[in-house]
Fold:
Amino acid sequence: MKLTRRQHMVLSNFLDLYQENGDALHYTEVAKHLGVNPVTAYDMLRLLEDRNFLASEYVLPSDREGGGRARVVFRPTATAQKLLAELAGDEWKEEEWNLVKERILHALRAGRGSDHQDLLDDLLVRVAEQRSPVIYTAEMVTAVILQAYQLKDNVADSTFLDRMHNMGLSDELSLSAFGGMAIGLSFAERANRRVAKALLTQSERYQEMIGQLNTQSRRHLTAFADQVVELVEA
Structure:
């Protein structure tokens, strides 16, 4: 059953927390992890249960905890494990990621001092056909950064570069901002119309792909984005 981007995010974070905890989770633990109130977390988990991604059970308090009411806890189903593996695990191989990462970084080093237009054109061709969420998002992040830096001398678009410097790429949530940047670049006065249109076309898909990544994949992508920015600035 197809999930929304937010539901993908909740399920991915639930699995990360479940693996760290090693046991079923109470909804208050999930709420704290997601930064939402307990009622919202409970409703999210019940929705995922209705769709067969989670299973709930009631557990009695231990003798050490004393008396009290039974607590409802949640576990992932086999369906959830399979879906997340397909979206962000099985399709992404470490060797494949390293090859793509090094290909892009090598091209950036080799093209120092240029506008990297050849690399940008190559990336835009690739993203249109790319299925792997991690590789697709890596290529899109690179393309957005290159397009933004090509406009660095355009006074009207200078705030775009300021935003990039202040986005805080160490924060994984900032990855979502690249989708908005792709849209914004399409309206830049001196932007290459062909490139801008291609980025705009891919912006919605990029946001969907980001929502499909697990925590490990987002960390890889965040670190990669930092490297791209450093090389382009150099």
